[in-house]
Amino acid sequence: MSNRENKKRRNEEAAAGDSDGAPPPKREAKRETGDATGDILVCELSKNRRVAVRRWQGMVVVDIREFYAKDGNQLPGRKGITLSIDQWKILHDHIEEINKAVTENA
């Protein structure tokens, strides 16, 4: 049976089941699974920016991220960067060059 036929059959079954007038149940959006309690907060850069080391998908990562407040909780935003250990080591190896460039351009 093709996808189009499956969809048509599901629509027909749904229409037949709507005879009682009750609205269909609402679907909840998928939520990312993760436990923020395992994070090690390294520093708070500003009110809404943090650097943390955490485990994500079985790897240790350095997470530099913006947070936002919702219902009294601080939640991670989309703006940020997550560095793998290899990427962190490369950044760490170049920190003197970065500091020099910042000093020269400040």
Automatic annotation (TrEMBL):
<dbReference type="GO" id="GO:0003713">
    <property type="term" value="F:transcription coactivator activity"/>
</dbReference>
<dbReference type="InterPro" id="IPR045125">
    <property type="entry name" value="Sub1/Tcp4-like"/>
</dbReference>
<comment type="similarity">
    <text>Belongs to the transcriptional coactivator PC4 family.</text>
</comment>
<dbReference type="InterPro" id="IPR003173">
    <property type="entry name" value="PC4_C"/>
</dbReference>
<dbReference type="Pfam" id="PF02229">
    <property type="entry name" value="PC4"/>
</dbReference>
<keyword id="KW-0805">Transcription regulation</keyword>
<feature type="compositionally biased region" description="Basic and acidic residues">
    <location>
        <begin position="25"/>
        <end position="34"/>
    </location>
</feature>
<keyword id="KW-0238">DNA-binding</keyword>
<keyword id="KW-0804">Transcription</keyword>
<dbReference type="InterPro" id="IPR009044">
    <property type="entry name" value="ssDNA-bd_transcriptional_reg"/>
</dbReference>
<feature type="domain" description="Transcriptional coactivator p15 (PC4) C-terminal">
    <location>
        <begin position="43"/>
        <end position="93"/>
    </location>
</feature>
<keyword id="KW-0539">Nucleus</keyword>
<dbReference type="GO" id="GO:0005634">
    <property type="term" value="C:nucleus"/>
</dbReference>
<dbReference type="GO" id="GO:0060261">
    <property type="term" value="P:positive regulation of transcription initiation by RNA polymerase II"/>
</dbReference>
<feature type="region of interest" description="Disordered">
    <location>
        <begin position="1"/>
        <end position="38"/>
    </location>
</feature>
<protein>
    <submittedName>
        <fullName>RNA polymerase II transcriptional coactivator KIWI-like isoform X2</fullName>
    </submittedName>
</protein>
<dbReference type="GO" id="GO:0003677">
    <property type="term" value="F:DNA binding"/>
</dbReference>
